[in-house]
Amino acid sequence: MRYQDLIERCVQWQDRWRDPMLTAVLVLLGLEIFVDIPLARSNFAEAPVFVVVWFFLIIAAVLVAARHWVTIAVILLSSALTLVANLMRLADPSPHTICLGSASLMIFMAALIWAVWSVVFGPGRVTHHRIQGAVVIYLSVALSFAALYEILLALNPGAITGATVRGSYLVLGRNLVY
User: Fold this and answer.
1) Distance between CA 120 and CA 128 in Å, rounded?
2) Domain count across the chain
3) Helices then strands (H, E): number in the chain?
4) Rounded Cα gap, residues 104 and 124, in angstroms
5) What angle, rounded to 10 degrees, do the helices at 95-120 and 47-64 form?
6) How confident is the model at residue 41 (pLDDT cuts 50, 70, 90)?
7) Which domain holds residue 29?
8) How far is CA 119 from CA 75, 131, 163, 177, in A?
9) What is the 3 state secondary structure string of 5-17?
10) Structure confidence by residue, pLDDT tens digits, 88-123
């Protein structure tokens, strides 16, 4: 098999699975927003489900952005930075670690929006996968604003009324999603 044939097969595989990955991203974002965050707010289950859903979300985002190497790099780097920042936040919930985690989440969401946008509004038929991709864009914008508000509250704790502070750990993002 020639190298050119291998590249052509890879491109065909990407074309075949790019639209269904939009549905996968929607399911994973739905799990995050409507299952993980409420469970984490109630202190029922914190890390295991959250980490698994985000791991699969990263994989699905990379598959959607398969031809955009810069977007893939941004998704992977911002995911790693989000993980490191959230681990630092558990040890030291200072405004700096909160801002770092939220800013890296905003970068991840921006890259996800870009990748999904290029598929949803790219050439080709409008399918139910692309419509679901538009919902992914909507939810990603909402999560980006929750992260932005979290940065605002970390820097100015009284900026938004109704945001709760539990001990020294600020539980901002979970409350701001809704």
Assistant:
1) 10
2) 1
3) 7, 2
4) 32
5) 40
6) low
7) 3-176
8) 16, 11, 36, 26
9) HHHHHHHHHHHHH
10) 877 777 888 888 888 999 999 999 999 899 888 888
